[in-house]
Design goal:
This protein has 178 residues and is mainly alpha-helical. It has one domain: Ferritin, CATH 1.20.1260. Helices cover 73% and strands 0% of the residues. It has five helices and no strands. Helix 2 packs across helix 5. The protein is elongated, with a radius of gyration of 18 Å. The C terminus is likely disordered.
């Protein structure tokens, strides 16, 4: 493999972000499992979809590194939180995870700008835009869960998210439908 064309400061951030994305995927699987256990199948499916998306994000970072002559360094993943008091805690955890991912992407972008790494900046612009959308949805989810405090409210919200995923072509495993 040729020598890396990525300056050390940018490389450090990109390597860190690969693992942060994988950690987020791992954590989203834990949220999905909790929701499934609580018979919140719509939320379980949504969080499974998010886990798949985070793995795809990690792959984009790995492909970028490989294309530029650098082997991605995968580290051990931290054990995700699995004990929650309710769906409001889950929604807040998802928001916190997205905020953390945004901070990580922004740190990568700042390093790329500082070191004049145009190729990384182009890659990261997509992630910056994606994180705005992800944080917006996570904020909306927190608000909707907190507002679903009447009898049957969470069940209705769970069915709503299930219908939304079905209407948007997502299968039960979080992948694209037919």
């Amino acid at each position: 493999m040729p020598d890396s064309t990525i300056k050390p400061g940018v490389l450090k951030e990109l390597q860190r972000q690969v693992n942060q994305e994988l950690g987020a995927a791992h954590a989203y699987l834990a949220l999905a499992a909790w929701c499934h256990d609580q018979n919140l199948k719509g939320f379980a499916r949504y969080f499974s979809t998010q886990a798949k998306e985070e793995r795809e994000h990690a792959q984009k970072f790995m492909d970028h590194l490989l294309d530029r002559g650098t082997m991605p360094r995968l580290s051990a993943l931290p054990e995700p939180k699995t004990d929650f008091g309710g769906l409001a805690d889950i929604a807040q955890q998802a928001l916190s995870m997205e905020q953390s991912n945004s901070a990580g992407v922004n740190a990568c972008y700042a390093a790329a700008v500082r070191d004049g790494d145009v190729a990384a900046q182009v890659l990261l612009q997509w992630f910056v835009t994606e994180q705005v959308e992800e944080e917006n949805w996570a904020n909306e989810m927190v608000e909707r869960v907190e507002g679903a405090n009447c009898a049957g409210g969470l069940s209705d919200l769970d069915r709503h998210i299930e219908r939304y995923l079905t209407e948007n072509g997502m299968n039960a495993n979080g992948g694209e439908g037919k």
